[in-house]
Amino acid sequence: MQVVIEKKDFGRMVDALAGDRTLIAPIELDTGDLLYSYVLEGMKVCLETDRVPLMSAKEFFFESEEPLFYFQREGTRDWHLTLPPEPEERVFLGIRSCDLKGVRYLQQFFQEPLKDETVIQRIEKTLFISLGCPKPAPSCFCVCCDGGPFLNDGFDIQLVDLGDRFLCDVLTAGGEALVSEHSDLVRPATEDDREEKTSLLEKVDRAFTRRSYMAAGVKAMSLDSVPEKVWSTLENRCIGCGGCAFVCPTCTCFNVLDRSDGPGGVRVRTWDSCSYSGFTREASGHNPRSRKAERLKRRFYHKLSYQSLVSAGRLGCVGCGRCVLACPVLVDMSTFVTTLRDDEAYRGHG
Amino acid sequence: MKATICPFCSCGCRVLPRRSAAGKVVGLTPSRNHPVSMGSLCMRGWHAVEYALHRDRLTTPRVRKNGRQVPCSWDEGIERAAGGLRDVIEKHGPEKIAFIGSTRCSNEDNYLMTKLARAVIGTSNVDAGGRLDFFPILDAVEEAGGGAEATLERIEAADMLFVIGSDLSGSSPMAASRVFRALERHAELVVVDPRPTALANLAHHHLRVYPGTDRYWMRGMMACLIRAGRTDPRFGPLAKSLSHFSLPHAQEVCQVPLTTMETVAERLARARKAVFMLGTGIHKHGEATRHTVHDLVRLSWITGHMGTQGSGIMVVGGDNNTQGAWDMGMSRHRNESFPGPPEGKPDQGMDYAQVIDALLSGELRALYVMGDDLPASQNPLREALSTLDLLVVQDIFRNDLTDLATVVFPASSSFERAGSFTNLERRVQWFGPILDPLENTRPDWDILGSLARSLNSDFLFQDVSEVTDEIASQVPRYRDIDSARLKKAFNGILCAAAGEREPQNGILASQENEMVPAPSPGGEFPLLLLSGRDPSTWGTGNRSSRITLLAREATPATLHLHPDDAKSLGVKQGSKVRTVWSSGMIETPAALSEDVPRGLAYMPTQRVDGAFPLRPKRTLPVRIETC
Fold first, then answer.
1. Domains (ranges, CATH) in chain B?
2. How large is the ipTM?
3. Which helix (H) or strand (E) holds B99?
4. Phi/psi of residue B133, each to 5°?
5. How far is CA A23 from CA A30, A93, A127, B116, B144, in A?
């Protein structure tokens, strides 16, 4: 089903959604940055696509720190365990195509072989109104990664920005139910609307300025043929901030620890990064990936290699470009694969 | 402003809170529109907020009664501290009281502490821990005058970059980020460090200078240029003072090959824009630090990089407010309009090192410390602190020092309050609260204000903005940088740079020819121990050790030796060794590495602060024993 909503009416729909559901959307901060956030009072929802939200949508499903269970000592021997409340129903408005691809990647990761009920429920209980990208940012390369700029599936509703109106691709029963709630604001799409979408899609592909040669990366990582000097340059650049993992829609490294205070506490899962040496250091002190180069290699292997691609069902990168934006020292996916294609650029300095 | 500034290094990244559906802060993210963070953070920044949420936070004022510390009300604590200060003033005079501020606290906190000490108590004994590392460098840069200030933007646009005595990737990551951007634009990088830092491995020229001998390569380069006739006649006095400078001797002392000195000097003279990043690696003692900085100023001047657009010196590696604390009066360069001491009292009191000496000799009767980790676990300082009439400590965590205090005030962390910090490029930045105040804690400036009022002074500050506004009217560099402007400026406001003017002529005229010889270990202590820092531990780790992933990354203290030295000492990889110096020792495992030059030993010291001598030294003659 395809319907159209005028932009002047869209605000009313957003207000209605924020009023009666838990709504997540990109909001504009005072600094001019965009950030996906629970829409709280006074926040300004922003559906522009040429500014990429600071973080991916990951944190609403695989949270940066989440309680797994609470524990309380009872008497001298027994422990009373409590589970956190079950995830609630939410609407995620304005999730970018790449970020939604990232959520589907997480869904697969947390589904098999071991199922993480909470993450899966959070995803299943969220209605996704995704935002196709008519204007990619200079850091974007989803077009090289099967990550966008528009999607054919995976969303409940997809918004296609046609200037003064959104064409809504409605794919699921949940999406249809939401549209019917707002039937006063929408009209059926016409052939003209559909044609405009088709021509927009053609135009958008040419608007990408960043080329990321993913095939070069897949080949080099699958065959382990990356020259040592590339790794040593990357290793001397990388400051080990872990930022690439935190902003990445598909990174799933985590740590588990107890935050306890006397007789009670909480076991939490927090984000972690495979670029940290402590991530792989064993209790004996031995570290199978003690060199930073080995850790970086692991990261790119997991995103790019044929072996990983087979197990994940897709490339481990959706081309959102956040590592391009967050890495302070140019150790990002796009620069890396481009380097492998054109080794000349990586002769290093000096 | 619903954003804060990272409280760790002197880069000053703008960080924004990420919140749960209930509005609780669950983490941080960097602003992409900010000229420092530009969308990035280092490991410390990503995890910074965790320490503020740690259960170890101090939440009750405490006073010592009958030898034991007990919880008390704020009023009682303030009254006890004020009463104690009054007693010492009456019995011994205000010069028996010293104040220690903090390079981690805000401009407002440090300004009020200076004002409290000087204008209310009547002592000029006020300084901060920065005196032991960065303040002498800032003093010398300030003394050298105009044009000695670079910005991050200048690093990125420069065509020649010097990183001297700093492992920049760990200590000032956003400056390192700009270095990489400059390299993409084909800038030339010179790293001066005895060890191969990550940046040194990518540099065009790595000058593996012998520790403590930087003046020799600086003067060597100047002599090369002067002798090649590459300098302006107006530098005549300098040329004259270098006429007897022996280049072969310089090469021998500093271990930088003469050909390298010639090449780099020539490249520097040709460069259009050069930025010099200076870390504590050049730190010596007393006048030697000053003379080293002055030689760098001379070198940059004769090569056309002083007082010119796009060049300059930047002091890297400090705390979030090293520059601000210095500007707020924790320095020897206070402007006359700064709140002064009463008539007849000296304008310069004891500095940090002198305060420690005076504590040890029993000369001081009271000490007031705000957010500084004085190494209180060690004797004889521990004993000296315990015998004071009054020790007042404001901090966010319990530590060895708070345990010894007569009065302890629980302070708010920067995440729970507002104020301003000044970064390494002198960008003054407002930070607003992103967390609710932790119950029963107060901002440092507010604690000092209450205390001053209790001492019958007219500190009528109701809000931190009023302190900021007083700074804007009292501190010339901060003229017109008032709270209204700061609160609107997410990118901060760069302090008026001294401008693109010529540096102080005195720097050229004063020759400062006497050179301190290279440290020559020998006899009982034949190796020179070089200290370094582990980027996952900040300062003494008071905050960073309470961040899970940072604590996990921290490397245990290890002594690194060159394999040849290890062999002659009978030390094997992983074997336990004892490092002994004139006043102490530490036992650690050894690691063999060709990264360490022969004759030197290397240890990241921050995890073992407690065991090191009171005056942190970049180098220390030691002997290694196997155990």
1. 4-52 (2.20.25.90), 62-132+320-494 (3.40.50.740), 135-315 (3.40.228.10), 527-626 (2.40.40.20)
2. 0.95
3. strand B97-101
4. -130, -70
5. 20, 7, 10, 50, 57
Set of chain B residues whose Cβ sits within 8 Å of the Cβ of A55: 18, 29
Task: Please give the Cα distance from B596 to B616 (Å, whole number).
Answer: 20
Query: What distance in Å separates the CA atoms of residue A277 and residue A295, rounded to the nearest whole number?
Result: 8
Return averaged pLDDT per consecutive 10 residues of chain B, 627 residues in all.
94 95 92 97 97 95 96 98 98 96 97 93 92 89 76 96 96 97 96 95 96 94 93 84 93 96 97 95 80 92 85 94 92 66 73 92 97 83 95 96 97 98 96 96 97 90 96 90 96 74 64 75 87 83 92 88 95 93 85 92 65 58 90
Amino acid at B370: M
Helix (H) or strand (E) holding B188: strand B188-192
Task: Quickly list DSSP for B507-558.
Answer: HHH------PPPP--BTTB-EEEEEE--TTS-TTSTTGGGSHHHHHHPPPP-
Residue B71 Cα, gap to closest chain A Cα (Å) = 20
DSSP characters for B410-454? Answer: EBPPGGGS-EEEE-TT-EEEEE---SPPPTT-B-HHHHHHHHHHH
Residue B476 DSSP SS3: helix
The residue assigned the tokens 């019917």 is A180
Q: Which residues are bridge partners to A256 per DSSP?
A: A269
Tell whether A72 is within 8 A of chain B (Cβ): no
Say which of A273, A326, A350 has its CB closest to residue B204.
A350
Write out chain B residues lying below 8 Å of A243, CB-based: 40-41, 46
Contact A237 B198 (CB under 8 A): yes
d(CA A270, CA A68): 10
